Amino acid sequence: MARKRIPARPRHSHPELVNILAEELRKEGVSSTPEIPTIYEEELPYGAGLHVKVIWSRWGKVPLEERGAIILDAYEQAGMGQERKRILVAMGLTPDEAQRLQMA
Amino acid sequence: MGLKHRLSGGECISGFEQAREDRVLDALTCALDQRNFAACYLFGYAVEMMLKCAYFRFAGVEPYADIGPHRAQARRQQARLRQTEHDLRAWAEALVEERNNRGRALDPGLAGAFLHHVLTIADHWSEVLRYHPSIPADSEAAEMCNQIDELQKLYPLLWN
To answer: Which of B113, B119, B120 sits opposite A65 (nearest CB)?
Structure first.
């Protein structure tokens, strides 16, 4: 019998995306190019929670399970700990995914 | 005795969980036979059962209890569930909201991935597929299969 235990993956392996996203979070204003993430912070109708959607072409090769962790780390890194605590859903979508799933 | 009279399991979490596994196997059999539209149809119901089971397990419903009364209660509590019984997005969002309401929110990143998987499947599926002639659905069946595989990994986390 061959028995192999596969270790849990790290939350993500893209610190460079955290850096870029944190930088964008610190900026004011709205961007509209696919290279720059578009960040939607939707106030949820219940409680005081936020549903954060980040639409970004750089998500293409990042597994879904890692995208949320990158978003959360970026909020922390940007010094937005208060907002981070309010996030109940953190979702990363490529522009194509956002259009297809009607999330833009 | 007719088939429908010989059914076992009933409308309970345990029955739904077994039925979900059976429908996934049925769907895979169809896909292997290149009947991908049928595979998609069955995959969708498997996901619907998974979401309902997660919702009711989290709500504390016993595995062999009739979920009928609990389903009615869920519809009263969650306006989004009143439109249709088969809305995958509504069940997924209802689960996320119910967890928040009870102070046991999912990890936000996990919630995002979960909703992403469900929305991708919901983009391909509705119960009305059954009223339409089959059309080619090779890539859709493959995508739904992958998404269900990911959802099944998340399943215990959704209700624990």
So the answer is: B113
Contact call for B108 and A97, based on CB within 8 A:
no
Residue ranges per structural domain of chain B:
10-159
- What are the pLDDT digits (tens) for B119-131? 999 999 999 999 9
The answer as to CATH 3.30.300 being correct for domain A35-100 is yes
The reply to whether CATH 1.20.120 applies to domain B10-159 is yes
What is the complex's ipTM, to 2 decimals?
0.83
Most B-contacting residue of A11, A18, A89, A99 (CB-CB within 10 A), to test interface: A89
How close does chain B come to A50, measured CA to CA in Å?
A: 10
Between A and B, how many CB-CB pairs are < 8 A?
68
Region of B103 (left: φ > 0; alpha: ψ -120 to 50; beta: rest) is left
Q: What is the DSSP string of B8-61?
A: -S-SSHHHHHHHHHHHHHHHHHHHHTT-HHHHHHHHHHHHHHHHHHHHHHHTT-
pLDDT band at B144 (very low <50, low <70, confident <90, very high): very high
User: How far does Cα A36 stand from its chain's mean position?
Assistant: 13
